[in-house]
Design brief:
It contains eleven helices and four strands. By secondary structure, the chain is α/β, with parallel strands linked by helices. β2, α3 and β3 form a beta-alpha-beta unit. α1 packs across α7. The protein is globular and about 55 Å long. 36% of the residues are buried.
């Protein structure tokens, strides 16, 4: 399984190169969050374009752990990285939106963070003729656990066919620090937020469902419903061929 995944990661590097070539672009850009998905994609970016890639850290009330993890990742791998602090921009946008008189939900405001970050990536990416790499994995993409025109609004989604556990395996192959691999997945949209608490079940559960090994009818019903209601979010970005795993 490890050897098959290593070959697939090599394929993804070539796929990214070809996609950039076809777009007549010069390289790629990716936002780093301190999480495992963006860490893996950052490695793919550097391997594909060692001299023409950029990682971007975009804090908005981000936790100390987020900062520490991305700092370790960047320093350990000598990633080209710039910081764009979006806190003032987020506060100003929130203030302006509230003046409309529309009662804004907490989720809508939180998703604004993801959309501000994507706007930042496109501003920098377009200036350098770089394509924007997304960081969504198969689990997130299937159930729609991403922000439309936020982290889902990208040019390429290289790890879209990898289960969460396969992303962890890829992270180990790339030598991502354990502090990143072992931390609870979080979108960092609010304090103490974790993906699994918000979704209501674990990534292991989603993995099992996606490879046909789920025996929980309630889980199947929930995932099927999430997939159906989030259909409008998908088909926004170019995709590599599917990863063929042993079942």
């Amino acid at each position: 399984m490890k050897m098959k995944l290593e070959k697939y990661l090599d394929y993804l590097v070539e796929w990214i190169r070809q996609a950039v070539k076809e777009a007549h672009a010069d390289g790629v850009i990716v936002g780093v969050s301190g999480g495992i998905d963006s860490a893996v994609v950052a490695h793919l970016a550097k391997k594909a374009f060692p001299n023409n890639y950029l990682t971007v850290w975009m804090p908005i009330n981000s936790s100390h752990q987020d900062w520490a993890c991305q700092e370790i990742l960047v320093e350990q791998n000598q990633f080209k990285c710039v910081t764009v602090d979006l806190l003032k921009s987020f506060k100003q946008m929130s203030k302006v939106l509230k003046k409309t008189g529309v009662e804004l939900s907490d989720l809508a405001l939180s998703n604004t963070k993801a959309r501000l970050r994507m706007s930042t990536l496109y501003a920098l990416g377009q200036s350098k003729k770089y394509l924007v790499l997304g960081t969504d994995n198969l689990d997130e993409w299937h159930i729609g656990y991403f922000t439309k025109y936020g982290d889902g609004g990208v040019d390429l989604v290289p790890i879209i066919h990898l289960l969460k556990r396969e992303v962890k395996q890829a992270a180990k192959i790339f030598g991502v620090p354990d502090v990143i691999i072992d931390r609870p997945p979080t979108a960092g949209l609010w304090e103490n937020q974790t993906d699994e608490a918000e979704i209501g079940f674990s990534y292991d559960d989603i993995d099992a469902y996606l490879i046909g090994k789920n025996n929980n009818p309630d889980l199947k019903k929930r995932i099927d419903a999430m997939h159906l209601t989030s259909e409008h979010k998908r088909n926004l970005a170019a995709q590599p061929q599917e990863f063929l795993r042993d079942k």
